[in-house]
Fold each of these.
Amino acid sequence: MALESIHSEERVQTAAKPQGDVIVVEDLWRTYDMGSEQQVQALRGVSMRIKHNEYVAIMGPSGSGKSTLMNLIGCLDTPSQGRYWLNGQLVSELDDDQLARIRNKEIGFVFQTFNLLSRATALHNVELPLIYNGTPAAARLERAKESLTDVGLETRMYHKPNELSGGQRQRVAIARALVNRPSIILADEPTGNLDPTTSLDIVRLLDRINRTGTTIVMATHDDEIVDQLRKRVVELNNGELIRDQHRGVYGAQR
Amino acid sequence: MRLQFILSEIWIGLRRNLSMAISVALVTMVSVLFLGLGVLSQRQVDTMKDYWYDRVQVSIFLCTAKSDLPNCSAGAVTDAQRKEIRSQLDAMKPLVRSVFPESQQQAYDRLKAQYKDSPSYRDIKPEQMPESFRVQLSDPTKYDVITSSFIGAPGVGDVQDQRRILDPLFNVLRGLSYGALSLAGLMVLCSVLLVATTIRQTAFSRRRETGIMRLVGASAFIIQLPFILETLVATMVGTALAIGLLWAMVKYGIGYLADKLPINFITTADVLTVSPWLTVIAAGLAMLTAWFTLRRYLRV
Ligand SMILES: Nc1ncnc2c1ncn2[C@@H]1O[C@H](COP(=O)(O)OP(=O)(O)O)[C@@H](O)[C@H]1O
Ligand SMILES: [Mg+2]
């Protein structure tokens, strides 16, 4: 079922090796060198597959390696060991420019801290990915507005991040993540800075995006939200994958 | 549109980092200034050498009745010896361009004209002056051919090369220019280190912005470009200031001297000749430093 979404022509065309899965990681390790022979093993041999259009919650206590895994999946970081196929393409074989193109076209990022340019308007923030792939100005503006409208911010386009609430900022970030119609959205604790009601709104928004054919991987330690979602749950502890359950809830039997 | 966006980013970057940009520009200015001074003084030495070596002569001093040189124990030069020396000189034609015989009286007159008011030469008499052949060479570096042919020849007291009088002067000037070049080397090292530190700090203070650029998929080149262009703008401003200073120094400083002294000096044309090289060196070093530093300290 690989590459069947409506925007498949924009994808990096590859012969899908492990058939059908958008994300395949195999024995992934990530070791941080802390100098003076000290090392932190943030990930210790994680293997998993994520199918197209799945909605996966990555859970685990703080420091369990969720962000490390998300950064590897998002091609923002490279593993110390192990292999990763994205849409059938072995990521270690890609050069910097190809990785940048993948981050631009294939992956949308959402973070706990929003990661918006503070001196730019919501509209400009959403335009950024389009600026860097050379989309002409008119098309850029139109698509950024469309994307902001999709997340319900049509009346806040010209506000700067500090003029928006936390939930609105996260919507801007989601609009930016969506603007190139990526196949994957990676959300690393997207509700971490939000109150429960707003958190639920954001998760529902992600759920809606998921139904339009976008794979979503969300790292979170908010068990209430995960319990409500009843989606696939992958749990990390101390850098190791300790549970992978479909329609899981956090409080389930281990 | 994308270009305009990048340019405005650079402008914002330079403004936010103004004190850094100014220090890079100034240190670059001093380095390029010393580099330029070194190169220009080398050219000055060459210009003077061309001028003076063309005019210097080898003097063959003949024995006079009063000379106490060891070669002259046989007494004053005879007519036959003088004729022999002259015909030997004429036989060395392509190397020997011209020969002026100078009598004791002519040497005396020249001395009197040169040191009109000097008391140290007041009591000198024409018969105390040497008689000589002043020999001009087509290739002044081959003076030792003359020296070896005539030193110790009958009637020749001494052979003197005027080059040897000028050489200490040229050596001092060369020394000065090497000094300027060494200082330039040190200053260039300082600039390279400053540029590297500046870029490193800027990369650190902008890690949030560059992180955002990375995650929205800006290419490595686009992420690095503002750093490289900002460095280039700062170093080129410094280089332009240095070239302007060099030009003014030559135009007004050397120009003033050239009006007063009968010496060939470098001109602003020399500054214009070396400026492109100075610019290329400064730009090249800046880009190289930026590239290495960014590879090390900027995640792309
Ligand atoms: N850049 C880094 N340098 C060193 N250690 C890091 C770095 N990032 C994360 N770590 C360490 O790796 C482990 C996993 O971190 P992280 O993936 O951020 O966990 P989580 O997102 O689940 O809270 C932690 O022990 C953390 O201290
Ligand atoms: Mg985290």
Amino acid sequence: MKKIKLQINNESVSIQEGSTVATAIFESDAKTFRKSVSGENRFPLCGMGICFECRVTIDGVKHQRSCQILVREGMKIETDG
Amino acid sequence: MDKMQTDILIIGGGAAGMSAAMSVAENSNLRVLIVDDNPTLGGQIWRSEMGKIKSPEAKKLIEKIEQNEIEILNKAQVFAQNDEKSLLAETPNGAVQMHFEKLILANGARERFLPFPGWTLPNVFGAGGLQALVKSGLSVENKRIVVSGTGPLLLAVAEYLKSKGAIILLISEQTSRMKLLKFGLGLWRIPKKFFEAIKLQSKLQRTVYLTNSFVIKAEGKENLEAVNIVQNGKNRRVECDFLACGFHLVPNIELALMLGCEIMDGNVLVDKFQETTLENVFCVGEPTGIGGVELSLTEGKIAGLSAIDKKEKAKELFTQKEKLQRFANALNETFSLRDELQSLPNEETIVCRCEDVTFGKIKDFNSFREAKLQARCGMGSCQGKICGSATEFLFDWKNESVRPPIFPVKLENLVD
Ligand SMILES: Cc1cc2nc3c(=O)[nH]c(=O)nc-3n(C[C@H](O)[C@H](O)[C@H](O)COP(=O)(O)OP(=O)(O)OC[C@H]3O[C@@H](n4cnc5c(N)ncnc54)[C@H](O)[C@@H]3O)c2cc1C
Ligand code: FES
């Protein structure tokens, strides 16, 4: 299986092709997604694009649902926290 | 903006949408376009695992779709109407206009989530939610997992997680053993389902399956550490890594609502031919009422035939549909929610996760609209898709007013 290299909060991560960004974050040291409006750490809930709890910044674009987006070579991901 | 033109536009590439597409393709020469927001076809039950579909039945259906040159637009989420005969979808490459003669809505369902203390902690997932994450690569090997909530999905999820190396500590199902037994006895009418249930049970044989039971609290400092489960008034604390918790399913009706279709008892209202109250707009699968994969397939076939005016042929499927509908009704009755679940949240429990609105802040309002306007409940990114179905159960509020876009989209796609 082909591995994809990407950056999560400036850490290099290598992950199987076909994974979502959410999975890559779980596999990384970051293990954070978004901070809620009152500052709680939130994780994915629905896994299918409905709840928006898994939002992160991808290549500078904010509020992307990481559970719906597949990893691409060279992606830069930033999470809250 | 890109434009696409078709005869029959289908929203949703799950069982219902694919079945409708094949029904049109096999019985006419009309052009069909399926639009779906996932990277691959399959919908929920046949969600691909790392891009690969596992079910032989689904594979066959997808193969047929490809052979029949049915057009597919993946990673595209429908968010608004353009005019009476066209919709707008957002794709990674920008917005797309899709023009059609007839429309079939097959946009499925989502899980119902209910608030309880601790449900916002990291590592508390939906049941289908965790399954979806594992299918996209999350490892659950040797993770201690409690599966909880209600519905047949809990068993399917537990079995799946177990096959991926998870340790299923227990399954906690809120419905009563009595109701389950009564339902089980009714299963003989649908032999195929019966065998599926037996198969599931045998794989899960050594897993504890508690009925009359539900999670009252999730605990942990940073992440989930333990859950408190109650059964017949008795409490137990179970240490675990993950909680997979979902309370059956809610039909996705926002799209139909936005178009102006009538809704009845939370489902999109359709006639026997699957036509909504809008002419030339059909609806199939879960949005017309939670019914499972076989009913979705049958409704898809009927809608496809109706949309190409082969109504006599569609009628041949009515008996089959009625039988499956009776099964679906029994299923929904069996897993209807017990009232005690309404008292799970305390004053501080967050109900609206997008805006961090607590139970205490909204409990005295009279409607979802009031809670929205005065406390911002349901005003965040998910647009009330999570808290709306929770407050429907908690307070009997209806959340049946939608405004486009039904999903947040990039500004450039809105003004394009
Ligand atoms: C999370 C989850 C997991 C499930 N797992 C199982 C299981 O393991 N076994 C089982 O028997 N049943 C499962 N079900 C039940 C499932 O609803 C049915 O069995 C079956 O998948 C229904 O088929 P459908 O075509 O009606 O809907 P779905 O399969 O839900 O298909 C609808 C499709 O439409 C897409 N869609 C929705 N809105 C839009 C939009 N605005 N724009 C574009 N596309 C859109 C969805 O992403 C989806 O791909 C699950 C349900 C859920 C919610
Ligand atoms: S986990 Fe719910 S939108 Fe991604």
